[in-house]
Write a structure and sequence with these properties.
Aminopeptidase; alpha/beta; globular; 7 strands; single chain; seven-stranded mixed β-sheet; about 270 residues; 7 helices
C-alpha cells in the first residue's frame, strides 16, 4: 500500500489567480482523442507517441521490488515545443541520442511524450495540458506518486523580458516546486515561480501534471531562448538536437533529477 503523504494545496497557496486558458484558446483540437480521430493525420508521419513504463515484478515473500515513483512527460514534444522530448528522455534516465541509460546505473523514471513530426506546422498539433486525455499518459500519471511535465513557452508568455533564458516552475506540489527552484539556483539556471495564467502556472487539477496518485505534480515552462541554448548553434532541429546537446542541457537535467531524488526520499512506500 502507498500512503498518501499530503493533500494537494489550495490553489490560493500558490499565489496565482485563476483566469482561464487564453494562451491556447485557439487549439485546433479539443483533446488528444479528437486529434487521434482526425483522419487527415497519420501517426508516424504527422505525430508520434513514445513511452516507457518499467516492469515491476515482485513475487518474493522476503524481498521488496521498488516502485517507480515518478513519471516524466512531454505533452508537446518534437517540433511543437522544441527540446522538450530530449529533456524528457534525459531526465527519465536515457541519453536522447541512443537511449543509453544515463547514468550507467540505469533509468530512474517512466516517461511519456507526444511529438509533432512534421517539417513545419507542428503548432497545430498542440493540445492544452488540461485537455490531455491520452489513455496511456493518464494511466501512467495516475499510477505515479509524482509527475513532472515539460513545456516550452515564449518570454512574453512567461511575462519576462524579451530574450530571457529562464524556466517557470509551476504545478500543485509545493514541495516539488521548492526542490526544483533550489536545484536550479545551485546550477545557476534562472528559475521563476510560475504565476498568472492557469496553463502556464500548471495549477488546474485537470492539468496532466496534477493527475498523479497525490493529485499534484510539477510543471516546467522553459523559454524559447533557454531551450535553444541547450543545443549547439545551428543544430536546434528535431533531427539534430539529440546528438548536439551542450553542458547547459546536462546541468538542467542534473538539477531536475536531483530535485526528483530529494522528493522521492521523502516518500516511503509502505
Amino acid at each position: 500500500m502507498i500512503t498518501v503523504l499530503a493533500a494537494a494545496p489550495a490553489l490560493t497557496s500558490i499565489g496565482v489567480a485563476l483566469r482561464g486558458t487564453p494562451a491556447y484558446a485557439a487549439d485546433l483540437y479539443a483533446s488528444n482523442t479528437a486529434l487521434y480521430a482526425d483522419t487527415t493525420l497519420t501517426e508516424g508521419v504527422d505525430y508520434g507517441r513514445r513511452y516507457r513504463r518499467h516492469l515491476i515484478d515482485d513475487q518474493s515473500t522476503s524481498a521488496r521490488t521498488a516502485l517507480i515513483r515518478t513519471t516524466v512527460i512531454a505533452p508537446h514534444g518534437g517540433g511543437i515545443e522544441a527540446g522538450t522530448s530530449e529533456l524528457c528522455l534525459a531526465i527519465a534516465g536515457y541519453h536522447p541520442a541512443d537511449l543509453t541509460p544515463t547514468p550507467a546505473a540505469g533509468p530512474v523514471s517512466d516517461f511519456w511524450m507526444f511529438e509533432g513530426l512534421r517539417s513545419s506546422g507542428n503548432s497545430s498539433l498542440h493540445v492544452t495540458s488540461t485537455h490531455c486525455d491520452d489513455t496511456v499518459a493518464r494511466a501512467m500519471c495516475a499510477g505515479s506518486l509524482n509527475v513532472l511535465s515539460l513545456h516550452g513557452c515564449t518570454a512574453a508568455q512567461a511575462g519576462l523580458e524579451a530574450g530571457a533564458q529562464a524556466v517557470l516552475v509551476g504545478g500543485l506540489n509545493s514541495t516539488f516546486r521548492q526542490y526544483l527552484m533550489e536545484e536550479f539556483a545551485t546550477a545557476g539556471i534562472r528559475a521563476v515561480t510560475a504565476s498568472g495564467e492557469e496553463e502556464i502556472a500548471g495549477i488546474s487539477p485537470e492539468n496532466i501534471c496534477n493527475r498523479s496518485m497525490l493529485g499534484m505534480g510539477a510543471q516546467l515552462e522553459m523559454t524559447t531562448e533557454l531551450r535553444a541554448a541547450m543545443f549547439a548553434v545551428g543544430k536546434n532541429t528535431r533531427t539534430d538536437r539529440a546528438t548536439n546537446t551542450v553542458p547547459l542541457f546536462w546541468s538542467f537535467t542534473t538539477a531536475v533529477r536531483t530535485a526528483i531524488q530529494r522528493l522521492e526520499a521523502t516518500q516511503p512506500v509502505l
